[in-house]
């Protein structure tokens, strides 16, 4: 594993843990200037956020939502690219969940791109 891959994996794992543990403050050190975020909704392209503050504001609102339960299915990295396969639940009902993936890019130890996709039905 290259040092870039190790750094990317660490950053992406820390990013996801902020959502699992509902710790939005943990995102502050992870998001870079000029960050671009494409959300999973609305279909088909998702909302686009540009800039560190816009990305942080959106991600922090999600991470602080106590009724959302994120679970990582797999986290991987290659060079500056990270992949998080996840499951999101918003109630105990089996139907109240989705599975998705975030494609991340890390530069200089910060997330500079997050593209979210969800399985639709």
UniProtKB/TrEMBL annotation:
Domain SnoaL-like residues, every copy: 12-113
Domain of life: Bacteria
A Pfam match: SnoaL_2
SUPFAM superfamilies: NTF2-like
InterPro entries reported for this sequence: NTF2-like_dom_sf (IPR032710), SnoaL-like (IPR037401)
Protein name per its UniProtKB record: Nuclear transport factor 2 family protein
Species whose genome carries this gene: Neorhizobium petrolearium
């Amino acid at each position: 594993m290259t040092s870039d891959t190790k750094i990317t994996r660490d950053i992406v794992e820390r990013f996801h843990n902020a959502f699992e543990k509902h710790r939005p403050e943990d995102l502050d050190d992870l998001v870079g200037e000029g960050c671009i975020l494409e959300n999973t909704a609305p279909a088909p392209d998702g909302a686009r956020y540009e800039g560190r503050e816009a990305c942080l504001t959106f991600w922090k609102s999600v991470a602080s939502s106590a009724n959302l339960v994120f679970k990582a299915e797999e986290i991987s990295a290659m060079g500056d690219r990270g992949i998080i396969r996840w499951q999101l639940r918003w109630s105990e009902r089996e139907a109240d969940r989705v599975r998705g993936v975030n494609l991340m890019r890390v530069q200089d130890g910060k997330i500079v791109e997050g593209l979210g996709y969800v399985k639709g039905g």
